[in-house]
Design a protein that fits this description.
4 copies of one chain form a homotetramer.
Chain A (H helix, E strand, L loop, with lengths): L11 E2 L9 E2 L7 E2 L2 E2 H5 L1 E4 H6 L21 H19 L3 E5 H4 L6 H22 L2 E6 L18 H20 L4 E4 L5 E2 L7 H22 L4 E4 L9 E2 L4 H10 L6 E6 H6 L4 H10 L3 E5 L18 H13 L8 E3 L10 H28 L1 H9 L6 H7 L5 H10 L10 H9 L3
Parallel strand pairs in A: 1-2, 5-6, 5-14, 6-7, 7-8, 8-10, 10-12, 12-13, 13-14
Antiparallel strand pairs in A: 3-4, 9-11
Helix pairs in contact in A: 3-5, 5-6, 6-7, 10-11, 11-12
Chain lengths: 436, 436, 436, 436
């Protein structure tokens, strides 16, 4: 068997003072924090598309990455080689999970039936490699946005033939996910939206999208897939406006169509900021509805208006994210998928390791710090005290739904003018810094 | 009685070729378009706060506008003078409606009871002036964001005393609106949001906000106010993040708390773009839920990240907005309120007329052009044809909820690979230009 | 000879009321406005890359456009076929100019010498087709950003081998431009910038860039190329930060290195807005330094943070642009190049015509309207009056450089407190609307 | 003498593990780093306007901060009280510097002469307090943007009377700065720009601005002020477009008018990001021209489009900033001014201490970490190696200006195709994290 990363042995935890760039300084997979192993808190996953199939191409230039697993002339051979390289990478890096689109792991054929056959073949091999290595599938999905047929959308396409095609493709991708023991199945609607309202029947497309998701729910039941269905919000790009704009929009849509209990959210940091929200905000909104499913933990550039999908290296972002995730009870079927690609100029295979190592160490620090903050309780205490007026008296009546405008007026007339207390933002930011 | 705008007579329609800057070139109030008078389609309203009470101040400088109605030393006298100036302005400009916050028309007193007394006094005078002039109240609202007591929110304040205060204030503002025959009552939650999640109990604040709105609904019923309750989305500013971020967020919130039938939306163009949407998008989302209530028709600067509240002068924006409004059936209780302020350097009273005239003429053109586009039907025809596949066969099955993934797969296997049709965006943009 | 656009005859001017989507409603090439033919004012050019070589691909999906001139298996045959299709398109559309990158018109070979040979061969054919049709070359340029060798820049690459390669490539592209009678040669530094300052020697890269441009100037002289050298500003994308950020940055750089008289600017509307400026602003800045060379007249989407390169259809943008261009004396060697691509879903060859037609008609209206505004003189008069205080007295002393702080203080003490006059923005926006 | 902050004693350094929120954990003023005391590296300054005169007001609400030094009815008494409070604050906080605008420290009078008299009186008192406490003036400036007279600009006003007024005002502010031993004098042109190009003579305003600055230079010489003149770039707000958009724009302007040696830049972090740049970028651009004068170290919110002027609490920002500053040789006359205001809801005087403490500790960490990075040299080594090709051979010829296009072509033909090396962004981000 070819070895694709001969220059790298298994990446190990060497602790904070290590100078080895191919070691973890913070991520110690089996270290126990708050009764659970670090790896089980974090549930890291590698994204097959960027890490194995990415090319380094952008809108202004061709691919820059020369991968040894892409050398074979035959597409199916390349798919097999890639899969072997993938599992070598997962194993050497020491992640327990991966994620894929159907068309990443197996090439699209001339016809739909051939595409299915290709996928089935590769799934069989993947199953064996999973079994050999112990690496698991965090989630699978179907790529219903790259092929030109999806130019005007998949589940919201003006042409029912394309709608049907997307259904058929997802059917197979869902079966593949079930076969591989995937813990979730993800919907990212990259073309579910519009380029211009001039040619768009918005109301109909919303209806179609609901039908589409309902059909997926029905099929999930039919085949006994017990994983979680996830929707990943993104506001725009590739389309001008995508229907899954942000968490609040998706949750509202799910409520409208009675689908709230069927789907959770896969929150991506870069998509959050493109929608004008912090990553922490999107996680908080999802968690407040009990809908926080999984996370794409790449990051964006706050000064750039497109999805840069960078490896996350900012400790603050990781701390704030892990605080929300842990306070929501931690991951169940979800995990931290690095939907991240190397910068185009990071041209070596080695950079794939550097990218994942800094990301994993950053989130390991995020976990360690957030657990310390939660354990110390100073922040929670501050917040609890801030809202303590709602625990009794008229405040409690409000929460209980017993107050009305007349009672409120009576309360105001009977009391002193309220005086605002400090929100202490600067103090709290200092408190957070004291943990970093 | 003092005359506040002696240099202006009633603004008249003089037609397209008029060179008179104090005349309308397009807005001909009594001209009938599609069976309804222009003024009844457009239902223009003046915003009391910017037009009468604005100062021209900004974060970096003091007010620049010297208004003759602000000269009196006594606040109540100023309030009376302002009201007289307002009705003179409404009448000379020829608008049928105005909108106000409680604290615009009457000054806040030392105590809550004094504030109420001040408001009651001015409402009585306003009622008389409405009756004298025929000018009506499009909507009233309470300013629950300017006073320091609301620094941390009104209906989402961590302190129930402030929550109660807001309830009491809105109770009176709603009574005043009823007394003046207001056709709507508006909620704009300028401080309903957060500055930092570090000190915020997001889930509790959402609950509180729902209680708050439910209490308003209950009180509306109690006093027999039959106007429409409106929520005005805005993503941020003054707070870092506001809960009424955009239409989709507000509609999702209303669905979550069973309030969807109790509220409609007041869409503001500048708020739409701050949230990353076009004005047309926000109107479309509201209309698709039957929730398009009213419009704040000011505009923003697409390169600036704050609410510039400019008078709308862009014909495209007006055409696209009017297309959505008219196709949704036109306004019922709502209208076009100019929540717009002069540029700080537009220091003359005369500029108030110029600002409103260009705005009204722009929307009059928007109406004329959009009605022509709708009448010609070319655009509608294009869209209908684009989605015609859903009228029969498998497409109709999808819409009817009769299709499933297996049927879709069968359909795909039995048919040719779908080929995308052109979305014709460039052609359609040319079509729109041909009407301008 | 194959005909590539058999469904289209020559596009003609049919006037405002034409319903023919393949006709011009405003662009009447030989109509004379202010002593010059419309076509000579506007000097429209087609961009070879988007129009002939574009694929409809984006970062999330493959190409959607199937062009009949791309069918041949042999790259050089495809290049020839494309060139024939190009001149058929130029001729049927009725534009007088085109623009190209070296690698658009001829494919890159295995080695540099082969690339040069390919280019030379195609240039010979292009020369013949220019002569046959009368179509001219507005500008040529070298693509020094797509090939992986340029991943870290061309004239600012950390590796002098790449710097040298870019020089050699531009040498040939400049020779090709000379051979084809190109009126300008353009530098767009898509990779001249950085991804992260962590790995960047900013000061050295600035020096290198200056050397690079100086070498181009020297070579231009050496070969007797008398066209204009142009730099096209863009703030970012593909890189995180590009050195030619905007007009002011480029002009400052040229001044620093004594190159101001050697280069003019090629202003692109979409790049202007990505840099936080209006198109009109960038044109104004360039014009004020006598550096307005040429224009890329595509447009962007103000709500999207990447280069959408749409066909320009907004009449306001065209009016404001043409006002600056005409008041700066109109184009000399420059022109209006549509660096615009169809939306990915506009999949038909016919859409290429629709896109260019709406763009040309939009700028024709821009020309007609701006000439009318200039001729009427109301706007100019307003501005002249606004600054008239500088024509005499202390104002004139200031302009003449004769005033100092002490004199200013004396002037203030001797005069009344100044009172601001209205800037009349709303009035002026109404004035502009009255011309549309 | 009244004590304004009785609840606070002098803030002391207590080290990393202190739980005292009124102590420094990292800022140890007299600790020596790389041969210089921490306080002499950092040269912290308090901004008089936000800290002493801020009100907590915003565009949507009144001031929320009740300061005991603002109680006196007489404006001059308030000014004296404020000054005493200021020096008590400076001393208790332990900063060595402060900064002011003329109209912060002394109120504007009815007439220009009265304003000057007020200023002179307060300057005398400030001089005494400086002498008593050892606190020094980092810089002074004139507020030429708040008063309505400056609505259309100061040094770019269409009315020469206002231009003259600004000159006279700056004359006095410069004299006051000299009198107080100020080390710099700052120009922030908050209204030097435009609201709309429709009413603006851009070229003339640029000329006027150059005259204005030249007059300041002349007067500086005349009175023997030996401090540094600084310009502070900002792209917009309050105006739609400001002429001092960013560092590159200002440096280009200074070069155009021969003023480059007369001015340095005062870089503000929040202004950098509003212009689409990182703070580090703006510092780097300034440093590359030898023009890095001083820093306003407040921060903004990357998701908000206005100047939030928050206290800086992000360690990354501080590290990156200090790396540029230290590698440029550290501050000479400049320093780190906190042009920062508390969040509106941080209503207590105590929050003023919390805000400054977190900011000072953040920059102290920035200094400590950046000095360690510089000392270790790993980053510098990486960069030096990356560009080492320019040290010899053809690379050295390029730098020396000895290369031309023909030589470059010869070099290309004689060498192998260049292959890009990895830029190692992910590796370098991990390297930085290892220091935090």
């Amino acid at each position: 068997m070819a070895e694709y990363f001969p220059e790298v042995n298994k990446v190990k935890f060497e602790g904070r003072d290590s100078k080895n760039p191919l070691a973890f300084k913070f991520y110690d997979p089996d270290a126990v924090i708050n009764g659970r192993k670090m790896k089980d808190h974090l549930r890291f996953a590698v994204a097959y598309w960027h890490t194995l199939k990415g090319t380094g191409g952008d809108m202004f230039g061709a691919g820059t990455w020369k991968r040894s697993w892409e050398n074979a002339a035959d597409p199916m051979q390349r798919a097999e080689d890639t899969l072997h390289a993938a599992f070598e990478f997962f194993t050497k890096l020491g992640v327990d999970y991966y994620c894929f689109h159907d068309r990443d792991i197996a090439p699209e054929g001339q016809k739909f039936s051939e595409s299915c056959k290709n996928l089935d073949y590769i799934v069989k091999l993947a199953k064996k490699l999973q079994s050999d290595t112990g690496v698991k599938l965090l989630w699978g999905t179907a790529n219903c946005f790259s092929n030109p047929r999806y130019a005007h959308g998949a589940g919201t396409n003006p042409d029912p033939k394309v709608f049907a095609y997307a259904c058929a493709q997802i059917k197979h991708a869902m079966e593949a996910t079930l076969e591989l023991g995937g813990e979730n199945y993800v919907f990212w609607g990259g073309r579910e939206g519009y380029e211009t309202l001039l040619n768009t029947n918005y109301a109909l497309e919303q209806e179609l999208f609901a039908r589409f998701l309902q059909m997926a729910v029905d099929y999930k039941r039919e085949i006994g897939f017990e994983g979680t269905l996830l929707i990943e919000p993104k506001p725009q790009e590739p389309t001008k406006h995508q229907y899954d704009f942000d968490s609040a929009t998706v949750l509202g849509f799910l409520r409208q169509y009675g689908l709230l209990n069927e789907f959770k959210l896969n929150i991506e940091a870069n998509h959050a900021t493109l929608a004008g929200h912090t990553f922490q905000h999107e996680l908080t909104v999802a968690a407040a509805s009990g809908s926080l499913g999984s996370v794409d933990a790449n990051t964006g550039d706050m000064l750039l208006g497109w999805d840069t999908d960078q490896f996350p290296t900012n400790i603050y972002d990781a701390v704030y994210a892990m605080m929300v995730i842990q306070q929501a009870g931690g991951f169940t079927t979800g995990g931290l998928n690095f939907d991240a690609k190397l910068r185009r100029g990071s041209v070596d295979d080695l950079d794939l390791f550097y990218g994942h190592i800094v990301a994993m160490d950053t989130f390991a620090r995020g976990l360690i710090i957030s657990e310390q903050i939660i354990k110390d309780g100073l922040l929670d205490e501050f917040v609890a005290k801030r809202y303590s007026g709602y625990n009794s008296g008229f405040g409690a009546d409000i929460v209980a739904g017993k107050a009305d405008f007349k009672a409120a007026e009576g309360f105001v007339l009977a009391n002193e003018e309220p005086v605002p207390s400090s929100g202490r933002q600067e103090y709290l930011e200092n408190l957070i810094n004291s943990y970093i």
